[in-house]
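chain below, 254 aa
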Amino acid sequence: MTTAILAEDEALLLTALREALSQAWPELDIVAECEDGAGALEAIAERRPDVAFLDIRMPGLSGLEVAAAAAEASPATQVVFITAYDQYAIDAFERGAVDYLLKPIRAERLAATVQRIKTRSAPSTADAETLASLLRELALERNQSASPLTWITASHGRETRLIMVDDVAYFRADNKYTVAMTADGEVLLRTPIRELAARLDPTLFKQIHRSTIVNLKAVASVVRDDTGKGTLRLRQRPETLVVSQPFMALFRNM
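prediction:
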């Protein structure tokens, strides 16, 4: 049986995709549904599905970044990108012969995509190189048009602290909140890490685990062990941070 994961951060669109696939591909076994890029990458590494349907714009890791890292974590997984109308991305997908679906998903387009997947073999080295090139091209466009977060606020009693994002070594999820770690200590933010991830500069802040995002300026070194996991040593913090094995590919693709 063919297996798949679905990654879409909008609940209604995720439901619509699941229902559309149940009609176009009844025998497909959906083994995981994810609402952000980090969850999708971990699901791909753990489940090694035959197909991954990835929204290209998700909090934290984009669908493109997930696909690039997944090429190492699960080389046999075929990828279908899902995107709202974005002519720049569509042109790039067409040039690279990459499978994509436009929102809202049309039944005939989905049927054609399903048929291509069924008749195609596993991704080749050339496919991986095309994807890497596409990632660089679209990431550049995304970074040029984005307005990343530059400062954050945190309340402590009657005082409100203003913290420059560049001064944060890493962010760590803490239930519904987020802990920001600076050289001076930790600050609790009343924003879930999933929401925060979507507003950070993707060229400087990299997800290293589902619950941790690191500032590359704060990293002194990266060490990889025999299991594929990595360890980050920080410049102004004594602790080290563990990089989950699937996320290590993000450092090689920078």
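The mean pLDDT is 87. The domain at 3-145 is CATH 3.40.50.2300 (Rossmann fold).
thats it, cya
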